[in-house]
Amino acid sequence: MADLETxxxxxxxxxxxxxxxxxxxxxxxxxDVCWGGRGVKFKNEAQKLWLERMGAKGWTVxxxxxxxxxxxxxxxxxxxxxxxMRRIKARSALSSFGIWMLGPALxxxxNEAQKLxxxxxxxxxxxxxxxxxxxxxxxxxxxSLRTSAEDKGDxxxxxxxxxxxxxxxxxxxxxxxxxxxxxxxxxxxxxxLLFDMASEGVSTSPIKLISxxxxxxxxxxxxxxxxxxxxxxxxxxxxDIAKYLLTHERDMxxxxxxxxxGQRDSVSNIAKRLIGLDAAILADTALRTDIARHEINALxxxxxxxxxxxxxxxxQGTGALSSMLKYYGTELNKERMELLMSIRGSDGLVWEGExxxxxxLARSWLRSRANSIEGGTSEVQLNIIAKRVLDLPGA
Amino acid sequence: MADLETxxxxxxxxxxxxxxxxxxxxxxxxxDVCWGGRGVKFKNEAQKLWLERMGAKGWTVxxxxxxxxxxxxxxxxxxxxxxxMRRIKARSALSSFGIWMLGPALxxxxNEAQKLxxxxxxxxxxxxxxxxxxxxxxxxxxxSLRTSAEDKGDxxxxxxxxxxxxxxxxxxxxxxxxxxxxxxxxxxxxxxLLFDMASEGVSTSPIKLISxxxxxxxxxxxxxxxxxxxxxxxxxxxxDIAKYLLTHERDMxxxxxxxxxGQRDSVSNIAKRLIGLDAAILADTALRTDIARHEINALxxxxxxxxxxxxxxxxQGTGALSSMLKYYGTELNKERMELLMSIRGSDGLVWEGExxxxxxLARSWLRSRANSIEGGTSEVQLNIIAKRVLDLPGA
Amino acid sequence: MPLIxxxxxxxxxxxxxxxxxxxxxxxxxxxxxxxxxxxxxxxxVWAKMAxxxxxxxxxxxxxxxxxxxxxxxxxxxxxxxKNLSAAPMLSTAVLGATALKQGTAEQQAxxxxxxxxxxxxxxxxxxxxxxxxxxxVATTAAPSGNGFKLxxxxxxxxxxxxxxxxxxxxxxxxxVGDTAGITLFLVNPKSDGVSVDRRSMVDSxxxxxxxxxxxxxxxxxxxxxxxxxxxxxxxxxxxGRACLAAEMLxxxxxxxxxxxxxxxxxxxxxxxxxxxxALQHRAAHLFCEVELARSATLKALQALDECSDRTPMYxxxxxxxxxxxxxxxxNEGVQMHGGIGMTDEYDIGFFMKRARAAxxxxxxxxxHSDRIARTLGY
Amino acid sequence: MPLIxxxxxxxxxxxxxxxxxxxxxxxxxxxxxxxxxxxxxxxxVWAKMAxxxxxxxxxxxxxxxxxxxxxxxxxxxxxxxKNLSAAPMLSTAVLGATALKQGTAEQQAxxxxxxxxxxxxxxxxxxxxxxxxxxxVATTAAPSGNGFKLxxxxxxxxxxxxxxxxxxxxxxxxxVGDTAGITLFLVNPKSDGVSVDRRSMVDSxxxxxxxxxxxxxxxxxxxxxxxxxxxxxxxxxxxGRACLAAEMLxxxxxxxxxxxxxxxxxxxxxxxxxxxxALQHRAAHLFCEVELARSATLKALQALDECSDRTPMYxxxxxxxxxxxxxxxxNEGVQMHGGIGMTDEYDIGFFMKRARAAxxxxxxxxxHSDRIARTLGY
Lengths: 395, 395, 378, 378
Hints:
The complex is a heterotetramer, with two copies of chain A (395 residues) and two copies of chain C (378 residues). Chain A is of the alpha+beta class and 395 residues long. Chain A has helices at 2-18, 45-57, 75-87, 97-109, 112-123, 238-257, 267-275, 285-314, 322-344, 360-368, 378-389, and strands at 129-132, 148-151, 155-166, 173-179, 190-196, 202-209, 212-227, 231-232, 277-278, 281-282, 350-352. Chain C has three domains: 7-120, Orthogonal Bundle (Butyryl-Coa Dehydrogenase, subunit A, domain 1), CATH 1.10.540.10; 123-227, Beta Barrel (Butyryl-CoA Dehydrogenase, subunit A, domain 2); 231-375, Up-down Bundle (Butyryl-CoA Dehydrogenase, subunit A, domain 3).
């Protein structure tokens, strides 16, 4: 524990000395978030400096081994670092699918050469990754993917297309599920391939959503040559890696990204401000009832996240609860957005306007409708709970 | 039309002369309802007289042919009769599964001898019928019935048991689904048999529900001999008759029996009386919202019944809507009972008490939970809508 | 009146459905959206609607209208909802005609024939709060010259940018929240002091913010009695709400049909997804809900035609029920379509947007369930 | 405090679950019901519960209690809920002990050891309205002699028929609806003027109507300050509500488990009905709901142990959520069991009855969602 206190003191001093003041401001715009990559455009010098300094220490990925560009910290030390960063309100130096998704999979399934090649570049923000999973027409049935990687001796020839590839147009490399054995049963014959988006035959096209423009793309592969050493894990066993990563993604969508945390203003506070009170209660009894019912569920859901986390930490975990959090969290977030639309009335219907923020609510509301579709639909989560948690028989 | 006015005048005069004053009082107790039968116990002389007079005219079944003991009236005349009875608040002279269920099936599927034998006795209330459909363990899967009727040359030998047989302990005869061909596929091999409950080998035992005692029985058949001429319709085609009758039953449960009509006090009136108002609105805003939502659905459902009826009359009917009425009507009635329990609070929890009516609410609430199970569960109704109305593919 | 369409009404339905499918299908809505059309509708289609008698559906024959009644108006709006057809039907043919029928003989003679011809557009400038509350009128009308001077802001005026005449609710007496003291004025949007700002809305329909700064109006431009405008306003709103319910019924209808068709052909895990029982039950439930909305809407329209005392209750029932069902139907539609339902390329999202906007127009389900409860005394 | 059971609490859970499964299973509830037992519980089981330390779970060690805290009390109640075990746990060990801990040193010394020994039963005679409203106290306590004279009727007194002491809320000042002016009294039910009438309830638990006619009580029998009883009453109720939430969690748990087990083995149309996706989705949803109720309940119990300022909010959250979930779980249970779920022979109906009664006790979901909204200022 003494060591940990020393570590804390050192960390605090380092952060004080190295975190630029601009990087201690709250994030206001999309370009306040740094995604790195070959084509990175830093918003300002401070953002660049902060990434370089954190990357050099490996603190963009504090728990990864230092051999792979990580910080080599223990879980406890990483916690201290995170606490100290929060203390001075330091921004995250790097946002990255490489860190959140590919990295953990590489550490678990990659070979030594792959780790040494890719992890340090992820840690330093030099290479930006995107994820190639879904395909047009596949939907929830991810394993029905048809993008093929034909064995050509020294390379694979990749043909097909992916959809819902976030930031494919900005990414340098892709980690991608492909079918290497068309004769094998559906879930077998799938492999996990890494390749450069600058390869000949790769092209992307953005997807417009009902909420407006989006980071999603459709990505096309037309006779793309991929060296055979770029296959990660065992050929034909890519589905295991996919499942491992899907659970990660589910946790992110259900748990944090879309339902947000305590920092968001509560529905009732917004309602109070916009609708007002009448004899100490909200001046719309039907909305009041619906809001209270929503907040009861939101509070109980927040406590459930807390409890599941505590149980997991202590090893009491009932397991397989990520489907519950994904399902309930995204449904609650949709309900929240519906209520906010009701509260805002006709003002909520504005799509574009001169004032900053006009149109935001309507777009967020529409965007929220995808929460229960992306990362495994609500229906798929319920299927998973029914099968894996409740052990109900197959149809 | 002149004829119809003559008929109205004659009917009015006859009713005035023949309907005893006691039979013009509202129904207050179970024994105000006359079910007829060999063992009938009339509550008073008026009840007996009224049945005899109405039975003699065939007006217990006004539209049945007079050859079978019916009134032989046209649809228009029957409507006049019903209007005139309502005018003087005349009670129905006879309640009977024979009238509501077996009669229509007999008219459609029975042979001449069967019609002549059974219909007049139903019309005069001499024989009380019960329905033998469900079997222990069969549930929604009615066609999986196992009660067997073995062909013994001049008779069938019936073995098995039925469950949910309403008033089996009071009935004289039963109309019963039996399996006459054990080798045929499930829905084939079922026949429709009529037999005397006084036959040797028939016994009944009452079923107690969570709401208390009930008219339901379990009925056992132990080597019951049934003459072969008692088979109705074509051997092995009993399932068609069953389906025909089930639609009848569904309409009764969804449409009238369990959701009741306009005569019931509305949920909001009861709430107003028991909870009271505060500044002109119900002094419980959450309950107010739930009650309003319920009443919106109840009103819209009432209008839907009205519309479906009007469409059917005019031949615009979209068809196959009885499943919708059954499903929605019974779910609404359950919701109504839940709301009434909330409104009544601890008083609603009383099970037995000295005052008349104590315990009624709790028992009605519990009884209502069966609405969405009996006569085809809500799940079965939704299946039917999905398949027959929406034409969705089978699993 | 039996709760059913008459033979005439069935004919109107058939011709309206054919008309909007041909003349103003969803693809037209898309191109109006993409071109950021200032009016939000096609004047060409509106001219044809006038020819069909749709613009004059509520205008008496004496003034050149078709005088077909509210059930017919609802039938037209339902067909528009099915195709997401945009036209000033609600603002002019329903609200405008309902208002002007309460006007003086001169006003009627001046406006009603123009409405029926599709030659004059009206817009109701009443709502000030973002959540509908018709008695919340803060806009003032102070005596001035031989008329009044208007001051105030109206935030959400449907078809306001295209209107030739605005029907403005302003206060000649009483306090904000009172129903008494509200007066309706016919205002030319080109008058000095009127500014009309087009707002870009989620459903791409025409709406505007109207600002009134010392706008001088003549005494002859008062619609109905001074201080007695609220009764006319309620009449307009109830006609509008019932017709919106009908439009939402159309929105529900197409959302539902598109979705059922989709799950019949879409395969996942080697099966049609329409064969999955959970989706089947949700679709079957939705079917029932749409039927309930249909019954409630027809009843409200009939009640308007019959001038029934219970019109406000039936109208609120229809608006509340049809609104909730349209939200449910379009939400279920997007969810069951999955990812492609979220793309702008696919039409189902338009139905979700229109359902939400129509829900917020002239009172959402919360507003109307409150109104029903008050009508029933609780 | 992490939102998780400590090792000690897990041990209590294991022993409580074992105890009630063995000593007071559902079959005992059935026989108490069938015999129309006057108390509604087995005194034998209660004695054993005292030996286990359950009766004294909230009694300080100084008074011979086990002093295990509210989380432990909730764990015991949850195990009781799972087995539908009836015992005066809520009325005596939770409400009674909470009340007496606010008493004078004499009162504590007199009652608390007896509570822990299972030798003295208490019952709260507070509610007068059929719908819970703790400030609705019309029963009067007029000064009389060296004490007070009580008059009034308490309609729904849990375990009232078996109680050795009633804790009566009566008004020494203020008007019906005021929180100030309510005073609590310890009343011997054998006193002149007290009549206790056992009521037969849907869940077959002990409850009584208590009538007070000129009942003379001594000044020494006032619990807490005169006119200041409401704060103690709220403390009692909040402890009781959180423990009821825990009991309902147990009711949900068994309803859910019974139902999932049932649909795994029951066949219809040649398949296990648990393989039908519509039932699977409903069961999976219910699973999530039960998990949410569990989190909310644990938080409320912890808040009580920590004397958190936010206790009332968390307690209402737990009571509202656990109540709604218990109703849902037992309703779904009966529905998925089909016909046999409706028969008295089968146990699932008992859970539905208990869920409803517990929901109505000390405020239903409507009451507590209102309380949460008020706490959050809307």
